[in-house]
Write a structure and sequence with these properties.
alpha/beta; Aldehyde Dehydrogenase, Chain A, domain 1; Aldehyde Dehydrogenase, Chain A, domain 2; 6-stranded mixed sheet; binds NADP nicotinamide-adenine-dinucleotide phosphate; aldehyde dehydrogenase [NAD(P)+] activity
């Protein structure tokens, strides 16, 4: 059985789940497609927005229970699980309040006649989602698509089945009809077959490049729209005029939140040489103060990685980085005999021929680079296969803005870590994927932007 809950704090198996059968997948597809052709999808948007409002309230009311499921299932610190749940309610409420405006017809002045673009649902969407934000990732797809009228079939990551079920249950409880959101415990091959099915019109994936490439290739083969939210190797640039203590405090948060398992986590710290020694000293001190422990214990500041496989992979990456010439400034190995803990780690002296230079480290491992000037910082930032987010710290906002414009990523934050909110577009360029989620841009990804012209 592929779907199982294993507590990453002690690697104890809690529960296993059977995969859905072919017949169950067919029922799910039939129901979703029927819903798309019904007055639910094609009719008044208000009925769908009412569900989103109700969903937001339900999530708020069940915050603690939902947070505990996530912390037990993938090891997120309980306070961070609560924040994630809260954010989900905000996203549901945001689309409930704004989707009508986003999907309203837009006029296009033209000499050929009265012209406008309408926004219609396109059909069933296949969503494939990762475990690192086990509710938020689902809400990023559910809220805009429910508002737009697209039914969604979702394959969640196999290590978070309880989160997947809890989310699907809430959507139903909020009043969504059967087929609006269906959780499926299925394999990659079954995802592929679903994408090929003529009843499905799009695929949205958040995850690794390997999975993204497989899903987007299948979507392209069958001429279907896809969006990909993939990995990142985000920079955290600290210029010589930055507020140093603030940069250190936020930098630590940017690297260690969610045990470092965030697509937009700060992974490459690029520090101006004039402040590099000071930064590294303070940053190292802060990493040393981290308290590893049970994610459900409020005093813990660093939880375990999500699985034993994730721990092994990170350990191997760090060993290889050091073998190829990187200097281990702090940490560097698994931290406890039980559970998937990895020491807060700092690597320096990483050269371009070291595989670590281009790799995403999905855990509490910071790479520190020192640069002489702004041009060098930009060059290093852009020398990446990824292009997701990034952060710049400087007291000179004009200087930081100029630098932000030169960085090849989908998002840049000045004097803050790469963050997220319902109203802000989220997504990347290069191997970080394509398309945007959240905001007005997110809801336009899977709608038919239909032109109508009345010739006078
Ligand atoms: P992953 O292995 O790609 O898994 C993500 C999802 O894809 C899971 O549901 C997984 O199912 C499924 N999957 C894997 N291979 C597949 C295939 N060939 N066909 C269809 N589905 C497939 O990624 P992960 O390691 O769990 O997640 C971490 C990655 O996600 C990191 O690179 C991170 O940066 C990225 N991420 C990006 C964003 C963003 O918004 N840009 C947000 C969060 C995470 P199983 O679990 O059953 O394998």
């Amino acid at each position: 059985m592929a779907y199982k809950t294993v507590n990453p704090f002690n690697n104890q198996l809690i529960k296993e789940y059977a995969n859905h059968s072919d017949a169950e997948i067919e029922v799910a597809l039939t129901k979703a497609d029927a819903l798309y052709h019904s007055s639910w999808s094609k009719g008044d948007i208000e009925q769908r927005l009412t569900v989103l409002h109700k969903l937001a309230d339900l999530i708020d009311n069940q915050q603690e229970a939902l947070a505990k499921i996530a912390s037990r299932e993938m090891g997120k610190l309980i306070a961070q699980s609560r924040s994630e749940v809260q954010l989900c309610a905000q996203i549901a409420r945001y689309y409930a309040d704004n989707a009508k405006t986003f999907l309203a017809p837009v006029k296009y002045p033209s000499e050929l006649g009265e012209a406008w673009v309408e926004h219609h649902p396109i059909g069933v969407i296949m969503a494939v989602e990762p475990w690192n934000f086990p509710y938020y990732q689902l809400m990023r797809v559910l809220a805009p698509n429910l508002a737009a009228g697209n039914p969604v079939l979702c394959k969640h990551a196999s290590i978070v089945p309880q989160c997947a079920e809890a989310f699907a249950h809430l959507v139903r409880e909020a009043g969504a009809p059967e087929g609006a959101w269906t959780n499926l415990f299925i394999s990659s091959d079954e995802v592929s077959a679903i994408i090929a099915d003529p009843r499905v019109q799009g695929a949205a994936l958040t995850g690794s490049e390997k999975a993204g490439s497989a899903v987007a290739a299948q979507a392209a083969k069958h001429i279907k729209k896809s969006t990909l939210e993939l990995g990142g190797n985000d920079v955290f640039i600290v210029l010589d005029d930055a507020h140093l203590d603030k940069a250190v405090e936020i930098g630590v948060q940017a690297r260690l939140a969610n045990a470092g398992q965030v697509c937009t986590a700060a992974k490459r710290f690029i520090i101006h040489q004039d402040i590099a020694d000071q930064f590294l000293r303070k940053f190292t001190d802060a990493f040393r103060q981290v308290k590893l422990g049970d994610p459900l214990d409020e005093s813990t500041t660093l939880g375990p990685l999500s699985s034993k496989e994730a721990l092994d992979m990170l350990s191997q990456q760090v060993s290889e980085a050091v073998q190829k010439g990187a200097k281990l400034h702090l940490g560097g190995k698994p931290a406890k005999s039980e559970g998937n803990f990895f020491e807060p780690t700092i690597l320096t002296h990483i050269t371009r021929d070291n595989p670590a230079y281009f790799e995403e480290f999905f855990g509490p491992v910071a790479q520190v680079y020192v640069v002489n000037n702004d041009d060098e910082a930009v060059r290093l930032a852009n020398d990446s296969h990824y292009g997701l987010g990034g952060a710049i710290f400087s007291r000179n906002i004009t200087r930081a803005k100029q630098m932000a414009s030169r960085i090849e990523t989908g998002m840049v934050w000045i004097n803050w870590l790469t963050d997220t909110a319902a109203e802000l577009p989220f997504g990347g360029v290069k191997r970080s994927g394509f398309g945007r989620e959240l905001s007005d841009l997110g809801i336009k990804e899977f709608v038919n932007q239909k032109l109508v012209v009345v010739r006078q």
